Amino acid sequence: MADDEIDYNIVFPDAGISERHWQGTKEPVVILLGWAGCKDKHLSKYSSIYNEQGCVTVRYTAPLKTVFISESFGYKELSSTALKLLEILYDYEVENSPIFFHIFSNGGFMLYRYIVELLHSDKQFSSLCLIGAVVDSAPGSGNVRGALRALRATLGPKISPVLRYVLLALFAVTVFLLRVVLYPLTKYVHKNHYDAVQERPPAWPHFFLFSRDDQVIRHRDVEVFVESLKQKGVPVDCFDFGSSPHVGHFREFPEEYALKCRNFLVACMKDSEGTELKKRHRVQNP
């Protein structure tokens, strides 16, 4: 694959299934942004929720180096990835369909941040119809311990113990210095994903799924973020699964999770169609 390409998967539903669920209207395109280290075989289980609903799905997970290294040092490598993801909609001629996001953990939310920024600033995407977003186990802010747990899980057991501890130590020092100690200064150069989206959020509805037992993303971070969006007039809802682990809500509660996602998608579609046939949700002005 060429250097300027990204490794994504797109699935088109059976025409009969789409017609049964959406009855003549354009079926939604659901863009799933995986967590750091997520394998496509795992992300495909989530996309099946929407494929069975007659949706087109696009699956993508950002490389580890962009999540744990580029973002930590303030390199906006994910910005170009965000542009390529949006261009896929035009490549497959689905840019006139309703667009819906399903985002996982900070790894997915970091990429979502740049997608939102492009929708703020790039006129070529001004006609896209954004209808909603599900956010699973995100966003979190300034949690070095949680970030270390995420990196440890991502590295897995195959890497040597010595190398693992070296990488974890380097990562911890870097994140602590740049994203905690020096952040009051470095934020003027590169805000983190949490602050960037919180300060200038998109206008479409959001549904946050989290758990108080999450050991990577603090539930309080999600709750504060939700309240901030509400104060800015963004339609937002949330649900606490209580006992499930980080990005483990679907695994622990598959039927409830799938039902909540589908119901939210249907509600977003009705909202988009009901208020105005050609309605376009746009990002808010700062």
Tell me, what's the shape?
globular
Order of helices and strands: EHEHEHHEHEHHHHEHEHH
Number of helices: 12
Tell me the quaternary state: single chain
Main sheet: strand order: 1-3-2-4-5-6-7
Average pLDDT value?
86
Rg over CA atoms: 18 Å
Uncertain segments: 276-286
Number of strands: 7
| Approximate strand percentage | 5-15%
The share of residues in helices is 40-55%
Q: Let me know the largest β-sheet.
A: 7 strands, mixed
Q: Note the gap between the termini.
A: 39 Å
Helix/strand/pairing class, anyone?
alpha/beta
Question: What's a quick, concise take on this entry?
Answer:
The protein has twelve helices and seven strands. The protein is an alpha/beta fold.
Q: Keywords for this structure?
A:
single chain; 286 residues
Structural summary, described in words:
- The chain has 286 residues and is an alpha/beta fold.
- Helices cover 50% and strands 13% of the residues.
- A seven-stranded mixed β-sheet has the order 1-3-2-4-5-6-7, sandwiched between helices.
- Strand 2, helix 2 and strand 3 form a beta-alpha-beta unit.
- Helix 4 packs across helix 5, helix 5 packs across helix 9 and helix 6 packs antiparallel against helix 7.
- It is globular and about 55 Å long.
- The C terminus is likely disordered.
